[in-house]
Specification:
It contains two helices and 21 strands. By secondary structure, the chain is mainly beta. Bound molecules: beta-D-mannopyranose.
């Protein structure tokens, strides 16, 4: 495959030329940074549920909506979903990194997010029909666990979730899959995509990026791999495909990362060298990822789904 003139590799995802599309200057109230948005199409409009960090260092979620998904954002004038630490002590230090899934049964949006408890980050779930009022299901995975998202459908009558527990310093941080009859009680936990080891770009620590996406070839999974270097961490993105009927089967996995920090707004920021998508939107053949750049802004890039599936089949 011929590579791009300004790049050493062919790139599947092309950045939007006016990136970043959202930053703290756009916010209707004072904030430190806006990043790592979940994404959904709601009533024909693009909705981003953006992670917003205040100057205490605590995060909440705020909805931004737009007709074209790149400009003219209408941002909620106050936090859309903020921590409720009196009732939900696991949210004491904020809530982060939402992944949004439309659940066919019961016909609601489900949001998997990181609740930052005093005992460490954990996975919590909430549902909504309108992104105005939310029903919390509370914590569903104990700490440390994050990078979680639900599948939109049930498998043999059970919900399924991908997530990334941290078992301890010597066992690797892998993507796991778990199942539940009711969204509240989870079991049958198993490692699904292991972090690789040694020199690999995705050695030792990986985590899910947006929620799994149903395609003609199976469930498309995008994940981040964290390369630890003497200069700090590098967050890059890779792809995998899961069997459509049985998502415990990994049928493809890219050897190479397919997207990584290159632009100034990805290399610099509160945490430089980070690209971190929590949402994607498929329209026809165009797949857009919405991602945080350097833990400071929101950016978008798009690819052809056909090209992605052809790349994975190679
Ligand atoms: C991860 C998450 C993300 C963040 C990334 C880089 O552990 O906390 O929210 O973007 O680190 O700082």
């Amino acid at each position: 495959m011929k590579h791009d003139s300004d790049n050493c590799y062919h790139t599947l995802f092309k950045r939007y030329e006016a990136n970043p599309i959202l930053s703290c200057q756009d916010w209707p109230y004072p904030v430190n940074s806006v990043f790592n948005p979940g994404a959904a199409m709601v009533n024909g409009r693009y909705l981003l549920l953006v992670r917003v960090e205040d100057r205490r260092g605590f995060s909440h979620l705020c909805a931004a909506q737009s007709a074209n998904g790149v400009s003219d954002w209408e941002i909620d004038p106050q936090p859309t979903l903020a921590s409720l630490s009196e009732k939900y002590p696991e949210e004491t230090w904020g809530i982060e990194d939402p992944r949004i899934t439309w659940l066919e049964d019961p016909g609601l949006w489900a949001i998997a997010y990181t609740a930052y408890s005093k005992a460490g980050p954990l996975v919590s779930l909430a549902t909504t029909s309108d992104f105005v009022s939310f029903e919390r299901l509370g914590p569903v995975m104990p700490p440390e666990d994050k990078d979680a998202a639900l599948f939109p459908v049930k498998f043999k009558g059970r919900y399924a979730m991908l997530h990334r527990p941290v078992p301890g310093p010597s066992f690797g941080r892998h993507i796991w899959i778990s199942f539940s009859p009711d969204l509240k009680h989870w079991g049958d936990h198993q490692v699904l995509i292991p972090a690789r080891s040694g020199a690999w770009w995705d050695a030792n620590k990986i985590g899910l990026s947006p929620p799994p996406l149903e395609t003609s070839e199976g469930w498309l999974v995008m994940y981040h791999g964290v390369r630890e270097t003497v200069g700090g961490c590098l967050y890059r993105l890779g792809l995998a495909l899961l069997d459509k009927e049985d998502p415990t089967l990994v049928i493809r996995r890219s050897d190479q990362w397919i997207f990584g920090p290159e632009e100034a707004y990805e290399k610099n920021g509160d945490v430089g060298n980070v690209v971190f998508p929590c949402g994607w939107i498929l329209q026809g053949d165009e797949l857009r990822i919405y991602y945080g750049g350097g833990d400071s802004c929101v950016a978008v890039a798009s690819a052809s789904l056909r090209d992605i599936l052809a790349f994975l089949k190679d």
